[in-house]
Amino acid sequence: MTLETYDPNLVLSGRSATQTVRLTFQQWEYTAVLEVAIGGTCTGLSVIESAIDAVFCDLPRGVHDVPYVTMSDKDGNEFIAEDDDDHEEEWLSAMLVKAEIVKAEADAPDVAD
Length: 113
Known about the structure:
The protein is of the alpha+beta class. It has helices at residues 44-58, 89-94; strands spanning 17-27, 30-40, 68-72, 78-82, 96-106. 12% of the residues are buried. The model has no long low-confidence stretch (mean pLDDT 92).
């Protein structure tokens, strides 16, 4: 899925939108591609930063509650990257090699009863 158009007015005048962000993390030949939907009024890089935060919060936790991400290579071999040093979102951001907003849709306006 590729975004064909990105409306700069998507979140103006109090409107909000839901944007799907695809994040690619990599260490050596191991890669993980994760997608997350971000709602609200931010655009561009702010959406990407929010997506990284959301992905980090949703990561599984291993021994001693340490978050990790499972990556794989082209042959299907797996590698577990762990936030051993408790750097949180900065740890995840350091592995980010690609970020793309792949879908953006205006949220339906609230209808008063």
